[in-house]
Design goal:
3 strands
Length: about 90
């Protein structure tokens, strides 16, 4: 008796395409530069979101940090997530 594999072909092509795109992107991206001053600044951010308007420079600054601990087992072992960002939006008339 034949095994019906025809319904699995679109799924395999989709996952194969995603895997190929991820592989291609990973090959094209170079190593990132690590700046210790930026790392220290991100570590010093408080939890939550904050914005600051700087009229003298005509810019708005935004910062944010989210720290969460996720336990996956009853023994208390898990992972800790720490996401931080600093952003600047500057609009000038030319």
């Amino acid at each position: 008796m034949a095994l019906p594999l025809a319904p699995l072909v679109p799924v395999a092509l989709t996952y194969g395409g995603v895997a190929l795109a991820a592989w291609w992107l990973a090959r094209r991206i170079g190593p990132a530069r690590v700046d210790q001053r930026a790392e220290d600044a991100l570590d010093d951010l408080p939890d939550g979101l904050a914005t600051a308007n700087v009229p003298a420079r005509e810019q708005v600054n935004a910062t944010g940090r989210l720290r969460r601990r996720i336990t996956l087992t009853r023994s208390g072992r898990g992972i800790e997530l720490d996401a931080a960002f600093m952003a600047r939006l500057r609009a000038r008339r030319v």
